[in-house]
Amino acid sequence: xxxxxxxxxxxxxNSTILVDSVFIMLVIVVPTIFAILGFxxxxxxxxxxxxxxxxxxxxxxxxxxxxAIPALTVILLGGVAWIGSHQLDPAAPxxxxxxxxxxxxxxxxxxxLFIYPDQRIATVNTLTVPAGAELKFQLTSSxxxxxxxxxxxxxxxxxxxxxxxxxxxxxxxxxxxxxxxAHFSGDGFPDMMFDVNVVSPLAFPEWVATAAxxxxxxxxxxxxxxxxxxxxxxRPVYRLEDPRLFxxxxxxxxxxGPGPERISDAGRPHSGxxxxx
Amino acid sequence: MPAVRxxxxxxxxxxxxxxxxxxxxxxxxxGAVVLVAILGVLTWVxxxxxxxxxxxxxxxxxxxKRIGVMYVLLASVMxxxxxxxxxxxxxxxxxxxxxxxxxPPEHYNQIFSAHGTIMIxxxxxxxxxxxxxxxxxxxxxxxxxxxxxxxxxGFWLTASGALLVNISLVVGEFxxxxxxxxxxxxxxxxxxxxxxxxxxWSLQISGIGTLVAGINLxxxxxxxxTKGMNYLRMPMxxxxxxxxxxxxxxxxxxxxxxxxxxxxxxxxxxxFFTNEAGGNVMMFMNLIWAWGHPEVYILVLPAFGIFSxxxxxxxxxxxxxxxxxxxxxxxxCVISFMVWLHHFFTMGAGPNVxxxxxxxxxxxxxxxxxxxxxxxxxxxxGRIRFATPMLWAVGFMVTFIIGGLTGVxxxxxxxxxxxxxxxxxxxxxxxxxxxxxxFGAFAGFEYWFPKAFGFRLNERxxxxxxxxxxxxxxxxFMPLYIVGMLGMTRRMxxxxxxxxxxWMIVAAVGVAVLTIGVIxxxxxxxxxxxxxxxxxxxxxxxxxxRSLEWATSSPPPVFNFAFNxxxxxxxxxxHMKARAKQQSPERDGPEYQDIEMPRNSPTGFVCAFFAxxxxxxxxxxxxxxVIVGGLGAWATFVVFAWRDHDEYVIPAExxxxxxxxxxxxxxxxxxxxxxx
Lengths: 277, 676
Known about the structure:
The complex is a heterodimer. By secondary structure, chain A is α+β, with helices and mostly antiparallel strands. Chain A has five helices and twelve strands.
């Protein structure tokens, strides 16, 4: 999950800006730290060679320089921030090979539901994507806020109930990555890590075909069961009955998740998986 | 049966035996220890007959110095509580690799929420407010703050909030939502327990206390300066106090209003921030950070002021670029209100919005950078004495600059897109809050302790405390930067990623080193109290200081100054000393006059007593008790408002006796300096 080992163009852009910004700042930070330590050491009271200049309390030239140094750095970094914000806007398209894959992600208490509306399948806590294709995410939440984040693919984004956020990513290399929620969402929050399988563009349709053979069906009823609070240890795969399910969730036609049962001392969330089927 | 239940519900609201966590040993034991400690202290006080002293000299005192000391004491006690939470969290994350660790989520989540809430509201805030209270009137050369009784009310309301947070340890639970209680998680549907109510009511009560303190200090700086103390002669600490308290006055009402809306949602079924019925969580995010971002400057500006005083005093030089520093302080004060959105770049706002707020956030780094350079040039050409406060100051400069770097990095939106809410962020804000605010508070504590109590602190233990804290900080938080770069997000009760594990163990070791630092500080206090005669400061000026707080005795008399000092330039006391050396004796047989001082008042304590009752009753829905508490607090204030006598007179003879002793010792100091 190393941020400095990006596996897609967005993450590469993020980490380049990160590293560049650090170096720009180090150029002034390192000399300043040395100056602090150096001045502090040289002008120690016990050093007879240091000249005591109690009257040295103002210098227009130095003032000019000390305002200019951070100002120039900020102007430079501000440019980086302005350009970077536009180029790496989460909603900006990320061109890729082949046709884009639409994925609708829903954060539930406490698992991730990934809906592939075009493929008419859905998965929980596993995201399978083809390498090289643009991944067009639409995201919402069934209940509380979460943040969708695959560190090695870059830019995270909030998921909020009744709202849809947009994020475009691309994975360039086949392999296994990990994603997580980056916004605290309750007792089962640490179990919201999910697997990201980046497969070859040819293997992706095969995976879709296999997945579509499952008996489990995702419709409004099974979704309502799935959104009960609990942790999903398995990685269930569903056939999607209604491709408009995401819209129903995002527009609150399916009401938000219920939260904990209002009986005193509701079951503890870490006491095992919750069978959604 | 139903009848019995109804009576119980009327009398006790939601409160019953299930609120006491009998199955959880840790909070119970902690609660028991605290209770025993409190009872022990109380018994000692009563048995030794100190009760009337405590009541007359401290609890009902409206003396800004006493109130300042009590603020700092509250902050120190709560620092131990918040620190224990930190130790528990670091141990949990060190062991909870592929396991549940030793803290279940519902407990771990309370701990990090309590840690953040306590450290910000009940450690950092009271510490800096306490130091400002203690020192600012002295530096301005005046006898008290603008509203002495209100000052006492502010302190006791803060203490009331702290008390409620601690009660949640054993009666019920604390919030499990993080220290800012983001909805919808903090709404009734997802947090049905009393935790969020404890959080919100304790902050509402202490928030009023903070607002009152802010109004008081702003008024004090603007209206109560001694003659000749015009704005551009004020010590830097007074300027940062002004800036910080202006921010309090402007920002804390936002917090109060936001929490009030959350409470309306929870208690009366409103829909400000709910998922349903048009509520909007994004509004909460905006509002809470519109307070939350200025809040960090409320904390760090006074620390900047402390470092300005310390660096200048121990370098034996006036502050370099004083006017530039004033400008930088006020620039930070204004800009800090325009950057709140950088706390949620990842919400999906457009690139223009993100970029503008990112750049605005970076702009704050300019005046902050200027401050660092001005301290640097204050040291240049100085004669630097490395007493403990100066060690904290140099340690701060090095540490803070790193925190500043990571802060500006987080202000670059595309970098924030991968670092937001990560352990990197956690490392960043601890870097600036520990390296800035806490180091500043400790520097101020060491620096002004002799002024408050009349004896210096032991240097050896002070140095040990500094080095352990300084190194402990780096050992704890550098690994958090690294795990942040490895994709680890904050608030994880357990994890399965092997790469994070070793760093979490290093961080746990670091927190042990930090703990040793805190222990050193406690030992330092004990050792210094025992050796207080040897460490006694008879001159009132133990550090060869430059501002007016050193012009009076240590501890100062209740009226601070027998005469209002006459200020003729920056570094007022430094120039007085210089003049005194040239033309001694300065003043023979001055004509003392009667001094009027405000009377002690139990208003603050009684008011906070009722406020605590009201808060507790609101949390547990005990409505009759809410009415009792509310009426009690209101009646206390009415009684106070109708008071006839609020001042007493210290006769001129008494002033003369006190002041002559002070002058004698001061002359002794000056003649000794001439001989030396």
